[in-house]
Amino acid sequence: MNEQHEDHIQTADYPLLAIRNVVVFPETPKRLFFNRPQSLEAIKFAARMKRPVVVVTLRGPEREIRDLHDIYTMGVMGTISQLQRLPNGTIQAFFSPTQRASIQGLNKDGPFYTVKAAPVASRESADQELPRLVQALKQEFFNHVDFEKRSGNFQWSEELDRNDVPAGRFADAVAPMLNASLDEMQEVLETLDTRERVEKVYTLLYKEMKQKEFERDLKAKVEEAVGKRQKEYFLNEQMRAIQEEMGESPENDEFGSIQEAIDAAEMPEHAKDTAEKELAKLRRIGMQSHEATPVRNYLDWLVSLPWSKATEDNFDVAHAEAVLDEDHFGLEKPKERIIEFMAVSKAVGELKGPIICLSGPPGVGKTSLAKGIARALGREFARISMGGVRDEAEIRGHRRTYIGALPGKIIQTMKKVARNNPVILLDEIDKISNYYGGGPTAALLEVLDPEQNNSFMDHYLEVEYDLSKVLFITTANDLASIPLPLRDRMEVIEVSGYTELEKVQIANRYLLPKQKKENGLTENQLRLPQKQLLKVIRGYTREAGVRGLERTLAKLCRKAVTERIKDGKNTAVRMTDAKVTKYLGPPRFVRGELEAQNHAGMVTGLAWTSVGGETLSIEVATMKGTGKLSLTGTLGDVMKESAQAALSYVRSHANDLGIYAKTFKDLDLHIHVPAGGTPKDGPSAGIALTGGIVSALTGIPINWNVGLTGEVTLRGNVLPIGGLKEKLMAALRAQIETVIIPDQNAKDLAEVPAEIRDRLRIVKVKHVSEIFPILLEQLPLPVVEQDEPVTADDLPAPQNNDSNPMPSMD
């Protein structure tokens, strides 16, 4: 308490000298440099009035004194002498610090800054271990000093050799000689207890000694490595001199260029070691050897791969949205998933996500969507066509033992793009040849697995190559053709076909301007009104995508250019119905008079194919016979079984449907699906087949503007189907007004655009009996079996009784 009271009594105002990046300790004189106006005025005042000053360190090298928080609250007090003005106006002063000073206030008024400070004395520790601790510090420090003195890097003070130097004084003298940080030095200055101060200085000294030891070891290793390389260099020089005498000097130039390429390729260590071994082998066998060419080709592949070169990713979500909207109209769900992918990548800080598979019909923009992703990210883009790939070697490459061996498509593409993080599109992955237990599909399992492709092994390279930074995108038309293990590695994004309204927008925004430009037409030289554009879409194209529409518009542009050149006119060509027919010929897709009439046994089914939705005209005919069932039209096994199930349902409910049981023994049924050259399969035509069979056996016509899709069971239950959106779009293209779908597919209607839902009457059914009031012109009347034989002439005539309810089929 007395010591604190004494310090309080000695508190006074002293001129302040603030310094940067250095801490001054008591009884350790130091030359300091000052150039701030306040510091220069403080030095003048102290020299003139012979007043002590307080030197304190700024808390940061860039700080200026605004308040007390900008300086440390512990400094040193001392006197200024030996002032010298340097040519640049800076004052050099010799500062003799006497003791520590505690800063308690700051005054910025006046020509120089002053601080309210009090001298602070060290607290001598009574610890009995302190002398041994000081002795250990001296021994370690003197050993350190001896080494530094020999290297000429140390300013030694002979005063430290005395044994009577106090512990606190010795610690204060050693601390400024260490390479410690500013905070560590200030911490030593603020430590008043002598034992604690000695311990902290000892810790700093130990850290520096270990750092010096590490640097010496590193230097020795570097010198050893350099010495080995110099030895190799001298040996190579001798070899070069010998080869020059033998006329073989050009080889050494080539070896040197290969070595430079290896060093510049920035390979990982395992790849560089392999390259160095191959180069050493090449040196041994010489360039003239027949074995040199394969080795040289292999080295060329190694050094040309982008081992560490990458493009910087752009995760700007707004930019990505703008790019995708600029190149694609519609496709809201695929765009939304891609934007989510980029947003997560931005939040995480790196692009790490699933392998994306864009699945949909041809011509809907899957490939251009992948290009848009690459452009949005700012990455290089490459496309690999997987259609018809038969051999694993096309993915993994060939062994170098084969003549003409090359790396696989993946490594070739990496060399082509010259960056290790491109966007690679594996196009038409469902068209790859599939071999059970192997083939290219098995090779792709590693390529498309983010947990494995960081160590992809190409058979030709035989060194691991990191593919984890590559963003792989695949496309497919039919997911069922992709093996399950491969499909499991990908996140499928459905890219559905375009609606009629979307096709109009795509034609006006993208296709027509593009074809005008490619065919030498300006914007105003060809005008295609909305009405005629719809005629082109409806009458000349019937597809899920827009490739056929683009070809049709290109034909219109060519015809228009030809007409302008022949007639020598500079006026704009305006498309009318007559000109569209003249240029493109009669419409390809027109519903004929026969097709637009109600016929018994003719029903329209809806089917899904890999190229989009399609309508199926199913015809059912009866003839005298023995009860046989004939199926034609290139039907698959599943569809044949569906027809058998439909017939079994009709036979089991024959009387309720107005059919006598003996009819099946006296008549043959023939079910035919036109376009016999096109294979057809699947269970979703079950209710259509049931309706066609009932219509043919009862003679009741079917409403031609009704389409059906749904699987039927032997009990007549209607099961859900897939591809609902594509089927509804096909119905709309075929001008069908009413579509019957399974009730369990009602949830899928949310994925169908409102444009389609609003233009169709969609009826949901749970049981096949519910289709007859909508499908048939009238309901069949139930019949009762008679004892006498029944012929076809005895079948009841159709009756107009729409209000007659169907009996329960359960």
UniProtKB/TrEMBL annotation:
GO BP term, pick one: cellular response to heat
Lon proteolytic domain segment(s): 597-778
Induction field: By heat shock.
GO CC, alphabetical: cytoplasm
Residues binding ATP, per UniProt: G360, P361, P362, G363, V364, G365, K366, T367
CDD domains: RecA-like_Lon
Active site, UniProt feature: S684, K727
Compositional bias ranges of the Polar residues kind: 798-810
Subunit structure: Homohexamer. Organized in a ring with a central cavity.
HAMAP family according to UniProt: lon_bact
Similarity comment: family membership: Belongs to the peptidase S16 family.
Protein name: Lon protease
Species for this entry: Acanthopleuribacter pedis
Source species taxonomy: Bacteria, Pseudomonadati, Acidobacteriota, Holophagae, Acanthopleuribacterales
Gene name of this polypeptide: lon
